[in-house]
Amino acid sequence: MRLTNRIISTVFLSLLALSGCAPRNTSGQGNVIFIHPDGTSPSHWGAARMLHYGPDGRLNWDKASNLGVYLGHMKNQLTGTSNAGAVTHATGVKVNADSFGLDENFRPIVAASGKNQTIVQEAIAAGKSTALINSGMIHEPGTGAFVAKVPTRRNFAEITKQIVESNVDIIMGGGEMWYLPKGTAGRHTPAEQSQRADGVNLIEVAKQKGYTVVYTRDELLKLPTDTKKILGVFAADDTYNDAPEEQLKLENKGFYVPTAPTVGEMLDVTLKNFAAKNKNFIVVLEEEGTDNFSNFNNAAGALEAIKRADDAVGVAMKFIENNSNTLMVTAADSDAGGLEVVGVTERDFPLDKPLPEKSGNGAPWDGKDGKATLPFVSAPDKQGKRFPFAIGWSTGGDNAGSIVSKAHGLNADKLPNTLDNTDIYRLMYLTLFGKEIAPYTK
């Protein structure tokens, strides 16, 4: 009788798991590094490969063990948005394009786990280490939606506040102006540019919560590995200057704030810190410059941003070499700008002659310094040959486009060959909590 009851119980739990009503235990718990190179398609990665490593070279991203074609439609439209895409990654369910953690009736999204928590919020509740890293302002949805829930993505002050109050162990990005009350000067922000209207100084709130606050690459790299909690605030606005090449030249600005660390450097510090704590962890990292430079049709800026995202991928893969219980998974949610490489012979693109501003069908072209400038030149191939190329753009916005997700390390083999955007959550959840959740069906 006891054996019969056990069999009935096992069958019942299996059916429950298959129905999606409850998760079932599978493998042991591990670590997750989710890298969101926003707006990148294989064409973006291909352009960066050609420029930085040559047509025969390989990016770190190329070396990941598994890949899948990513399908990113929303609940109410085909092309993903940064905020709704992030909500889907964080909860495993599809939402409307304007969602930032709330449904159309402004109620918190119920995640695929059955809880009103994102995967990062569940990790915090379970005592795991957590980190949010962004090259943009910290309220950027690619990371912010993993802990914040607001009616609109434009509510920057409230998103920033919820992030600081979330108890995430490590928070790094830009956006100092949204930490400070109006009239308060910061390390990067003049008093007249501070934005908070509620009078709350979130830098002081963070210090009271035990965060060590750093403002530059040098300060970050000097931190002891056993620092309990870290808040990195590396720019008044974004750590990049997202504008057309011509505007940046007039303003004498580079692509990135020179004192800010790269996302790869932020990740390296984070992983060393978490390794010292010896707890399972989840890191959510976004290189937002890949999206924003592409939206401004700034090809040189976009290629620099892609290189930075790829460097972060390299940091993650290096960590996995010595920590096999760790998953790295990458995914964008849209194809920004519709970037394409236009590669012809040197006869067609002479190295000493500016490119045409547009192609024959009117699509804008970029050279290495913007419109009507000299062509990009690739790194050498195996024969030492370099090739000229232009970057063509189809739009200034985001497209459904072509997106590829990559995975490496623990459970990478479980990345579907063709995956829904909700599957990113499921793979992360399996790795972090050791529980499998049935595919999204609603």
From TrEMBL:
<keyword id="KW-0460">Magnesium</keyword>
<feature type="active site" description="Phosphoserine intermediate">
    <location>
        <position position="82"/>
    </location>
</feature>
<feature type="binding site">
    <location>
        <position position="38"/>
    </location>
    <ligand>
        <name>Mg(2+)</name>
    </ligand>
</feature>
<feature type="binding site">
    <location>
        <position position="286"/>
    </location>
    <ligand>
        <name>Mg(2+)</name>
    </ligand>
</feature>
<protein>
    <submittedName>
        <fullName>Alkaline phosphatase</fullName>
    </submittedName>
</protein>
<comment type="similarity">
    <text>Belongs to the alkaline phosphatase family.</text>
</comment>
<feature type="signal peptide">
    <location>
        <begin position="1"/>
        <end position="22"/>
    </location>
</feature>
<keyword id="KW-0479">Metal-binding</keyword>
<dbReference type="GO" id="GO:0004035">
    <property type="term" value="F:alkaline phosphatase activity"/>
</dbReference>
<keyword id="KW-0862">Zinc</keyword>
<feature type="binding site">
    <location>
        <position position="333"/>
    </location>
    <ligand>
        <name>Zn(2+)</name>
    </ligand>
</feature>
<dbReference type="GO" id="GO:0046872">
    <property type="term" value="F:metal ion binding"/>
</dbReference>
<keyword id="KW-0597">Phosphoprotein</keyword>
<feature type="binding site">
    <location>
        <position position="291"/>
    </location>
    <ligand>
        <name>Zn(2+)</name>
    </ligand>
</feature>
<feature type="binding site">
    <location>
        <position position="38"/>
    </location>
    <ligand>
        <name>Zn(2+)</name>
    </ligand>
</feature>
<dbReference type="InterPro" id="IPR017850">
    <property type="entry name" value="Alkaline_phosphatase_core_sf"/>
</dbReference>
<dbReference type="Pfam" id="PF00245">
    <property type="entry name" value="Alk_phosphatase"/>
</dbReference>
<dbReference type="InterPro" id="IPR001952">
    <property type="entry name" value="Alkaline_phosphatase"/>
</dbReference>
<keyword id="KW-0732">Signal</keyword>
